């Protein structure tokens, strides 16, 4: 086989799909409980959207975008994240006006970044995320963090903590930039070429550098929290207060910054230590200037995004199986004569939402049982000549060595009660 999936992409195979659906269902349900509605934006957008939205001195825009020209010469980019696109749609469709002051949107889907593929880092990866546009209230920040943590709890990844920081507003950032310039001036010649460029263009980006040589200097640099203005400090204190009211104690991390320029004030990250180097499962924060920067009225907002592949990896590391998974029922036939009856039975059960598999081709009972085992069927129904003529079948629980004769009429109710 010559052609393989492109580097950094993976096929999500049927054996993993149950986990994907499990997480997606929980995310959808939990996020809906917080009043969010789904939005689906295009996979590709005008390149300009991300350059303006994410910032032209970020790694994402500088190094990681899949950008190409379409046949009319327009510059198009596969979305590396979805906040900028959701804000674009929000402005394009006047969603703010339709919904009153606060609109809450969520999305799920693939994102694309040209990164070095590693465990938990791909070039096509899936995120789900939320954007709440139209409120400056710190209680909303706390609610977003609580919602993200609740999703992990329900998936079974328990005990995760949110790391929290404030990255300030435009005003305090200006004074922090001056503090950083002063501090890094003496070290920059020993730091990586990227950081040398960052010091000129956007010194806070240095704090996100992963290069070992730079880490020594970054670990000792002044933190943003010492430079934030009283209003930003107060906002952070209020977020902490609301989190505590919700029974959540965040970990304050004064060195936390985010890789996108649009963040203001609240920044947070949720990590799972089982994941090693790529341990952030979700991250987010406030972006009070983005709507205005994209040409809309000044509108505060906050959101987060979570990485599906890392959640799946964490589930595997912790042996978490999807709970409440539906048990597959396998219908085996003892002879060709009863095959039409088994097909009718399968359709009846499926109509009642019971997952059923039956074999069309496997002849012997033995090979049908093997097929059932390969499918991880929880139950096998054996349709025999004399039993089916009395409206009955043999029902076998594959996890116990038990079987019982049961009326076809009662099967659906029996599975539903189990
Ligand atoms: P990292 O520091 O790990 O690169 P990031 O700050 O670039 O993460 P965000 O842009 O905030 O990540 O995206 C939110 C989440 O999406 C991350 O916490 C992570 O779970 C996931 N994610 C980001 N990039 C990738 C990728 N290349 N492959 C898989 N998952 C990713
Ligand atoms: Mg990244």
TrEMBL record:
Its main location: cytoplasm. It holds the Pfam family HGTP_anticodon. Coiled coil: none annotated. The keyword Isomerase does not apply. InterPro entries: aa-tRNA-synth_II (IPR006195), aa-tRNA-synth_II/BPL/LPL (IPR045864), Anticodon-bd (IPR004154), Anticodon-bd_dom_sf (IPR036621), His-tRNA-ligase (IPR015807), HisRS-like_core (IPR041715), HisRS/HisZ (IPR004516), HisRS_anticodon (IPR033656). The keyword Coiled coil does not apply. It catalyses: tRNA(His) + L-histidine + ATP = L-histidyl-tRNA(His) + AMP + diphosphate + H(+). One of its GO terms (cellular component) is cytoplasm. GO terms for molecular function: ATP binding; histidine-tRNA ligase activity. SUPFAM superfamilies: Class II aaRS ABD-related, Class II aaRS and biotin synthetases. L-histidine binds at residues 81-83, 113, 127, 131, 258, 262-263. Keywords: Aminoacyl-tRNA synthetase, ATP-binding, Cytoplasm, Ligase, Nucleotide-binding, Protein biosynthesis. Its EC number is 6.1.1.21. One of its GO terms (biological process) is histidyl-tRNA aminoacylation. CDD domains: HisRS-like_core (cd00773), HisRS_anticodon (cd00859). It is found in: Cytoplasm. Residues 1-315 form the Aminoacyl-transfer RNA synthetases class-II family profile domain. Belongs to the class-II aminoacyl-tRNA synthetase family. HAMAP family: His_tRNA_synth. Homodimer. This is Histidine--tRNA ligase. It comes from Candidatus Desantisbacteria bacterium CG2_30_40_21.
